[in-house]
Specification:
TATA-Binding Protein, seven-stranded mixed beta sheet, binds S-adenosylmethionine, Rossmann fold, 25% helix, single chain, 10 helices, globular, 392 residues, alpha+beta
């Protein structure tokens, strides 16, 4: 990842130099406990943080993962520019020889979770595939049904990148790839929009069942997102997962289910091909959505009302993680911007997919730097707890 190593420079000197370029360097925040500075940068219409860590012998300028812009090239250029403006004496750097190829995540078919806040599908029909892996099935479906938008959701980043590459190669315009946890993704979608949700060969997680994609919460969100008559289609080679899912599905009222064994699909994924060779049984459970769901309001407001900085906050806020039933809040690091403004790095929300954000408190108010959290229930509950803790 792009960085430059430098001869050390004092935090005071760095801030003095930074203050000459307010158009590019918005502010410098000083860690309360560590030799670490956060530098807020405006570069190429993006706002993000760089971190400068230093000790007596060396300094290191790199990007902050939480606010990272999508394009590696932007980061690399910004690190180069800022180190020049700050007159850092570079000892070594990897920003010159980084790969210049634009990342596949710059593809218009790659969708960030934030993009679903105000989403227009531009297709009348939508289908979703959870954990598409090599992408064979979603690519096949999209090629066969050009009037349907396929949203693929995959937690494994290289698989998502592989799919984006294939979308380009096959010249398809009806697939979106989302690199996120499917257990949390459905919560971002409006009600009654999908005609199919495929869950093919989910990881069985026999030893950690709480990590399974199929759960009562997932199925109820799936039923909300599916339109009347739409289907949730599970395909698995695991006898245990099949029986577990049957139990989960059966706990729902007003549903219709169809069960098949060794039913051949027109396309066989790489994963399935392996089991076919071993003549393993394959199970399908198709669950039909039998009712229209209510409009979903996930328009959570992540504001802090009239909250502002006071001098005792840094001392009084809890350092340990605050754990609740379905979410947590952890104030991880504290920084000062000048004497009357504080910045807090905070982890919060769902245990499986925590949100990380910086919160700025100054005399005028309090807000998330530089974007709000994802509009999920766990994040919103955590946000309300953050407000209470900051107010205490
Ligand atoms: C066994 S593979 C099956 C892949 C593909 N569906 C097939 O049939 O070949 C399971 C896939 O689900 C993905 N996955 C696991 N947990 C996930 C989650 N919570 N959200 C999204 N994808 C997930 C994995 O990264 C993996 O690609």
């Amino acid at each position: 990842m792009p960085h430059v190593k430098t001869k050390p420079i004092s935090s005071h000197e760095l801030e003095t130099r930074a203050s000459k370029y307010p158009d590019i360097i918005e502010f410098v925040a000083h860690s309360i406990n560590y030799n670490e500075l956060l530098i807020s940068v405006n570069y190429e219409n993006e706002k993000f943080l760089l971190i400068y860590k230093y000790d007596d012998s060396e300094g290191l300028l790199k990007f902050e993962k939480i606010t990272r812009p999508l394009k590696l090239a932007t980061l690399k250029e910004a690190i180069g520019r800022v180190s020049k403006l700050l007159e850092l004496e570079i000892v070594s750097s990897n920003i010159e020889n980084l790969n210049k190829k634009p990342p596949l995540f710059a593809s218009k078919y790659y969708k960030k979770i934030e993009d679903f806040k105000e989403v227009h599908f531009d297709f009348d029909k939508v289908a979703i595939e959870v954990g598409f892996g090599s992408g064979r099935h979603i690519l096949y479906q999209a090629a066969q049904n050009p009037d349907i938008l396929y949203i693929g959701i995959e937690i494994h980043t290289p698989s998502a990148q592989q799919l984006l590459k294939q979308i380009e190669i096959q010249n398809l315009n009806n697939i979106w790839a989302v690199n996120y946890d499917a257990r949390l993704f459905l919560e971002m979608l409006p009600s009654n929009i999908a005609k199919q949700i495929f869950v093919h060969f989910p990881v069985p997680w026999d030893k950690k069942p709480n990590r399974r994609v199929i759960s009562v919460d997932f199925v109820s969100e799936a039923m909300r997102v599916l339109d009347m008559g739409g289907t949730l289609e599970l395909r698995t080679d695991s006898d245990l997962y099949y029986r577990y899912s049957l139990e989960v599905f059966s706990s729902f009222e007003k549903i219709k289910m169809q069960i098949q064994k060794n039913f051949a699909l027109p396309i066989i994924s790489k994963y399935e091909a392996r089991w076919n060779k071993q003549e393993k049984d394959i199970y399908d459970i198709t669950m039909v959505c039998n009712e229209k769901s209510q409009k979903f309001d996930n328009n959570f407001l992540f504001s802090f009302d009239k909250m502002s900085y006071n001098i005792s906050m840094a001392e009084n806020l809890p350092r340990e993680s605050n754990i609740y039933k379905s979410f947590f809040v952890h104030f991880e690091r504290f920084y000062m911007i000048g004497k009357e403004s504080m910045m807090i790095r905070c982890a919060f929300g769902d245990f499986a997919r925590p949100e990380h954000k910086y919160i700025i408190l100054n005399k005028e108010g309090c807000y998330y730097y530089h974007s709000e959290p994802i509009g999920s229930r766990a994040n919103f509950d955590a946000h309300n707890t953050i407000k209470e803790l900051l107010n205490a």
